[in-house]
Amino acid sequence: MHVVVGVSGGIAAYKACSLVRRFTEGGHDVTVVPTAAALRFVGAPTWAALSGKPVSTEVWTDVHEVPHVRIGQSADLVVVAPATADIMAKAAAGIADDLLTNTLLTARCPVVFAPAMHTEMWEHPATQGNVETLRRRGAHVIEPAEGRLTGADSGKGRFPEPEDVYAAALAAVDTRGAAGAGSPDPARAEGDREAGSAAYGPMGLRGRTVVVSAGGTREPLDPIRFLGNRSSGKQGLAIAHAAARRGARVVLVAANVDLPTPPGVTVVPVETTLELKDAVETAAREADAVIMAAAPADFRPASVSASKIKKGTGPEAGLRLELVENPDIVKGLVASRDGSRRPVIVSFAAETGDASGSVMDHARAKFAKKGSDLQVVNEVGRDLAFGRDDNTVHLLRRDVPEVVTVGPAGKDVIAGAVLDVVEDLLG
């Protein structure tokens, strides 16, 4: 596969070196097209050594070969990494003032942008408008990661990890079919599709909006204490990450999750069950699927002390709490569909067996009560499910009588199984 790696002028240009190496080690024919600004960060000899080809930024080099047209025409994939606000603005406006922007205008293959810039630049309405324009025209714009930026700044705008960009690029080719995109080697194209699917998943959710909740809510007792649970949020984050890799626009409503945000995911942080309810319901208005992997508290204190609750003394010492029931978020989402089948709703049932029934007995009763389309059931308790990297779940579908068991397996495998069902339900 002929891959063009465009490098624009950001400090993350050095990370593109790893990306180019991944493509070349994967057996792809790579042409690096840097901007003049990019060469101030990484020199032309480096790009030439990594790609095995001479490097130019100008349309005037080897004019007889018409490089400003031929490079884009012959490409099976174009990846711009890093993609600065400047290069995306030029691409959206159709400006062609150097070799890279000319290549972007002439390319008729999948084009992937991996943005990297400061948070303020990424969030600016001009940049967001350009991103929407590029996506509307069919380009793949990866959401930037969150983390340390240039200098002491942190926030959204960090260049995604090179392996994530590589996987996203292969997945972009997979949506078009690499063999049909000008690849001279059908066997290589098939290998590309397999690699993309293994690392980044099929793009069956492209164009869909998926809302995922994760973590455990906290219900405050006073300014210091709260009622909570053991949910780590790992499974919800794995689902959000997998959905983004399948091409979805993902909104992650995170309840007290202390884990890195997956690349390509928009995070809405919440603390309490009522905050979780409001955030999920707001996001669900535009969603194709809502996956409720969070563990919301069933009860909350009837009142919250404005100051720290002190220990008592004497024979009557102790603390008595009045609790009120929290709303059932899943039932509310189901009711709001008003007979429609959208969004697809996935509930989670973290259950323990007791004298009145087994884990599955309670899970089936909950499934019937909630009315969701898919319920993911797991047995919880100390050293079970919460906080672990592996798990066993049972999938109950409204439209299928059989129970599907997945695991013991990692969170990513379970995430894939859940999303396979979601894709099927979406049709």
UniProtKB/TrEMBL annotation:
Which annotated residues bind CTP?
A: D298, K308, P327, D328, I329, V330, F348, K366, K370
One example of a Gene Ontology biological process annotation: coenzyme A biosynthetic process
Q: Which portions of the sequence form the region Disordered? A: 177-200
Region called Phosphopantothenoylcysteine decarboxylase, residue ranges: 1-209
Q: Which reaction is catalysed here?
A: N-[(R)-4-phosphopantothenoyl]-L-cysteine + H(+) = (R)-4'-phosphopantetheine + CO2; (R)-4'-phosphopantothenate + L-cysteine + CTP = N-[(R)-4-phosphopantothenoyl]-L-cysteine + CMP + diphosphate + H(+)
Which GO terms of the molecular function aspect are on file? FMN binding; metal ion binding; phosphopantothenate--cysteine ligase activity; phosphopantothenoylcysteine decarboxylase activity
Q: Which family does it belong to?
A: In the C-terminal section; belongs to the PPC synthetase family.
Name of the protein in its database record = Coenzyme A biosynthesis bifunctional protein CoaBC
